[in-house]
Structure formats: C-alpha cells, structure tokens
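<goal> How does this chain fold?
<body> The protein record starts here
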Amino acid sequence: MLKRILFGLSIASAGPALAQPAGPPLYKNAQAPTEARVQDLLGRMTREEKVGQLSTLLGWAMYQKQGNTVGTSAAYRKAVDERHIGMLWATLRADPWTQKTLKTGLNPTLAAEATNALQRYAREHTRLGIPLLLAEECPHGHMAIGTTVFPTSIGQSSTWDPALIEQMAAAIAAEARAQGAHVGYGPVLDLAREPRWSRVEETYGEDPVLTSQMGVAMVHGFQGPGPVGGPHIISTLKHFTAYGVPEGGHNGGSISTGPRELYQSFLPPFRAAVKAGARSVMTAYNSVDGVPCSANKFLLTDLLRKQWGFQGFTVSDLGSISGLVGGHRVAATPVAAAALAINAGLDTDLSGYGYDKELLAAVADGSVSAEVLDRAVGRLLRQKFEMGLFENPYVVVKNAAKQVRTPTHVQLARRVAQESVVLLKNERDLLPLRKDLETIAVIGPNADNIYNQLGDYAAPQPEDNIVTVLEGIKAKVSAATKVTYVQGCAIRDTTSADIASAVAAARGAQVAVVVVGGSSARDFKTEYQSTGAATVAAAAGGQLISDMESGEGFDRATLDLLGKQLQLVQAVVATGTPVVVVLIKGRPLNLNWLAAHVPALLDAWYPGQEGGNAVADVLFGDVNPAGRLPISVPKSVGQLPVYYNYKSPARHDYVEMDAKPLYSFGYGLSYAKFAYSDLRTDVVESAGTVQVKVSFKVKNTSARAGDEVAQLYLKDNVSSVVTPARQLKKFQRLALRAGEEKTVIFTLGPDDLMLLNPEMNWVVEPGAFTAMVGAASDDIQLKADFQVQKGLSLPAGS
C-alpha cells in the first residue's frame, strides 16, 4: 500500500503532464505532423524524463561484451531506468582513452547488435518508449573498429576538391548509420591560425572560404538531401566558435578577437554550413570577449537562431557546462552553470553531469523556466521524429559488415589521399622515380608505422587494413628492386636512434625515401583528462617518451622536428644519395633545413589507411600531385601568426629574417606546368544586387596530364574599414590533358564583395577592386581591376 501511495505522489508531482486523453498517443502516429507529435510527447513527459533526454552519456560503458555476444550493461540499464537518458556518445569508439582494443571493442557486426540492444531496452523498458540518439566521432572516418580511415581534415582540404570530400562524407555516414549511429561529430570548422595548437590536423586550415566549402561538402555528404534517413547521419558542426586561435597555442585557452574579425573570419564557415542544412552545432571550450561559448546567448540564440535561422539542436563539448564553474569561473555552483547554459540556448549536455540533477534543481528553484526546458527537449525530439527513429530505431545486423570498409570506400580513401599530397619541392625533376630502380632505401620513423599514419580520432584497426609507405613502395616496384628499410630513429625518443644503419642503407641505394614528421597516435601509457584530451607534461629524465606530439592536448612551443629526426635527414643527405623526404604529420613544422638541402619534399599530412599506396602513386608518377597547402608553413614561431590574408598594411621584415612564410597558403607543385592568360572581368549591377564575372584561361603547357588548382583572390582597394591584403574568393581543381586549355569562369556576388562597415552593417561599398588569379596566394599570375558603381546594404544575417 505504501508503494502505491508513493507512486501516486510521484505522479502528482509531475503535474498535468500525465493527464492525457485515452486512445493511441498522437506521438506514435507516423502520419501526424512532426510538430504535433513533439508537443504531444512533451505533454506526456515528466520533468525528470525531459531533463534525462538532454543528457548524452559516454557510450562505450553502456554495452557488455562476452566473447562473440554483446548486450546492454548494468550501467546503461541504470542510466535509462533512473535518469531517463536520451542520447549516447562514442558508443562504438575504441582507443586508449576508452580502453577499448581490437579484443575488447566491437567489430561492425557486434556494433550493430549492441546498438540494437541499447535501442530495444530504451523502447521496451521505458514508459514512453523514446528511442536513443546515438552520436559518434566521424571527422575522417567513423571512429570505430573495422571502418574506413580517410586522411585527416587538414589533408582533406589539401585536395581543394569539395565534390570529392562530399563523396567521402557520404561513405563515412553510410558506415556509421549501418552500425546504428545517427549523429556524426564533424566537420571541425575552426580556423587554424595558430600551428602550435594541438588540433590543427582536425581543421581545414587558415582560410574561411576554403573551410566553408569543405564544411558544406561534409554537411551535404553526411546528411544527404531532405530528411536525414537511409544511409545518412546528422552533422554536428564543431567548435562554435573561434576555438582554433588560442593564445600561445594552448588547447581550449582564451582567444582575442574583435566582433568584426569574428563576423568576417571565424563565423562564415559556420554560417555556410548552417545554411547548407546542418542540424547540430557543438559549442567550443573557449570564451569570446569574456563570455564562454557554452553560455553565450548572443552566439547560441541571437546569431545562430534569430539571424541564421538554425532549426537543429546545440550540444556542449564534453564537460564544458561544468567548465563554467571550474574553468571559466562564471558560475558559482553546478546548478548555476546548468541554468546559464540552457538559458543561453545550449540544448544538450555531452557528459551527463552538466545538466542531470543540476538542471532539475535549476528548474525547481525557478532559475530555468518550464518553457526553456521544453524548448530544448523539443529541439532534440524533433530530430528523432524526423529521422524516423520512433518507427524503426534498429539496423540490419547481417548487413553491417557488408557496408563498412567496402572496396569502393577503400578506393575512395586512396583517391582522397592521392589528391591531398602536396609536392613542396622537386629539384631537377628528381620525382617521379623510376619503377625499375635496382635499390631503394626507405628510412624513417613514419615509413612503416601504422598508427602514426592515421592521426587523432582513429580507432585501432587490423594491420591488414592499413598500407604504410614502405608497403606502398614495395608494391609499386618490380620484384627485382631491392628495398631496404631502416627506422633510423623515433619521433621523439632519442635513446633508440640508429642513424648509422640508415646511413649505410642510403649509401647502398640509388635513392633514399626518408619519412619523418609527427604523430597523433594515442597510446595506453598516456594519461587523459575527463574531456579526452591528453595530459601533457614536459618529459622527465629517463621517462619513456611516446611518439605523440600532435593531437588533442599536445600543444607545441616550437615547430621543430622532434627527437633526432633532423639529424637523421642530415646524415642521409650527407651520403650524396638523392633524397626524397615524405612528411607525415598533423601540423606545419619547421622545414627550413629540408627546403634548403633536400632535393624533393612531399607533404602527406596524416593520409589514412591508404596513405602508403597514395604516397607511392605520387612518388612513381602514377598520380601527378596537385594538393595545395590549406595553411601557411612558417619559417619560425617568431613569425606567428603568419596566415596569408592578414589585414593591411603590408608586413615588414624582422631583423633576423623576412616576414614571409616558407610556403604560403595555396602553394603546391606538379609534375606538369601550367600557364594562365586572358583575364577578363564583367560587372553587372541591377536593383539590389551586383555580379562580377571573372574569366580566364588555364593551359597545361607540358607533355604530362595533371590537375591545376586555379585560385581567385580579391582586394578591396579603398574601404571604410581595414580589409585583408588579399582574400581567396573562388577556386577550382581542373584536370587538364597535355597541351589542353580550359576557360574558367567565376561569378562573384554581394557575399564576396561585402564588408562590415564602421556601423557594423553588411554593405558592398562602391569603388575599385582588384581580381588576382594564380596558383597560390603568393603566386599571382594575372591581375585586373574592376569598379562597383553603386553601394548595397545587405541583411543582418549575411
């Protein structure tokens, strides 16, 4: 009797939410309008059930694996029964932080069984049967065992090929959805103007236009056209906003930017991706002008929703709601932090401890209204209804393995890696190499290291799934070619170097391919913070040092090659054997000595599972490289920041060196040669708009087919506010046969010509502009001035 009384009291405490008419619930009617279903379900939910929907727990603890069977864990059942959770994150993630290995983690078939079991419990053991929304890390492949691993984002943007990246994103989405995921975290739209920062590899580089195009491609590939169904997933944009320029390169640190720079540089990629239909946005750890992004009403409500019309849901980065108390110190208690965040417009909590009981307390004390709570919950439920999860939250287990790492996806990974390779130097046409060489020395810490090649946010993979540079070279040459491999040294550890053996191998070879750079390969010896970032400290004497010098948490004070890598390259070059250096890494590094003394340099970034094949394809000429740098390579950290589109006036030289980067944004060589000609501009002004057609010709003047990346930059010659010395506006990757010529036509509109005037209004000002066309930001082949006669005022959301 006592239990019945207590149950009755708990029902009464929920108020009218449970007073519903008899008959089938409207929210279960698939033919009813989505908004009606959302409101019907909200009306049936208790306060506890609503708050529970906003909690996104760490998913890898929510299944239990025994041999070849998998089911729900006690921790999961407890979370559903007591906390009414609505989401999980990284359920299928495997890496040293999660302590999931090839043995303890899930292959694609078991992954599908696990997500089905989780959904079945949520559907069959809860009062309302609300399905889960499962989010996964998907920046360069679904971060799960057995999936296709593509190049990291900095390599993706080096392709300058958004159509290819859209294909890649669609493949990632299909693999994730086949295993039960619904949300993919990505793309990362932070501008990387601080190469010391540990997460440069996750970005598309330093430029807002290139980043915007890559971000839009990812959103389209992830979500597909229309409702996010079938093989598609919701795209979560990261990290909103200005996260990629922390002071001193400290991950998650404060940033310094004014509102005009925020609008003109850091926000455009997010605006473009929102306009492309992105349904989820993740907040950044940093603050903007003293207001943390996770409690920033201007960003999350005024800008994102009222100006841009965003209709999806927002999510905190892991633990960032708690960070309002312990990190930023803008809230005195966790309850106050929960209220700050949700009132600002932050809908869901990635962690499970930022809202939960703290948000319940905030609602109870009146600091969060019932309307605000319903608003956040409604935004999440809307996605679940529109994805059809109430009708079918399950996946077909037997199909999962067939849809993951398919031959088509593997070939696509190879193509993305091929297009991402940037040829930095090719003195006396050392490259491409002949396949009939008698002897090749392959040297270096990244020549035959699987995980150093994959980058951060990559799961353990069976060795047979990954092709290293050594393996790629061996597969490319004939059986008669002798390929000798010597590691030479590690990335960071200086105790195990064997430079003498490397020198001997180089002396006995016709050419030496030296593969150096960096690593974001997590290991089980590293300690991790609650956010998943590594805990990094200066190395103590006698301590075993991992290769990892990049990836989340691994910020740098210098950009030098670490360990004895430079000494290794110098010793090999000193043998007199022709040397090709291949760089595998996640950020720009100091290449001054290499650029001056090594005949050929290739930058492959982290090229993914097919990286070895792709590098070999370029080395031996089966692929003509056309990758272009999405980020400038400095000569010294003393030059930073060194991005190409700095504000006027022009930068002057230092006492020790000039102010120019070693390699500028947009730079990259080819085995072919190209010529630009016949630049024309045509301005058409009509009521309320302006269009400028820019046309020119590009010709392949060599005897070899190749791709050229034609780039159009713009300079506003006189403006009411200071503008960039030059700004990329349009680009196109062109395939040209030997001797072929193509006409390229770009059309500039008001969005390309506008600026934020002194009154903070978007306008196109009348006056002179200079169109600059070329092969890189510092390799302008053609220039032409044009005039805009009439000014324009543009909408506030521009």
Remarks:
- The chain has three domains: 2-402, 421-639, 674-793.
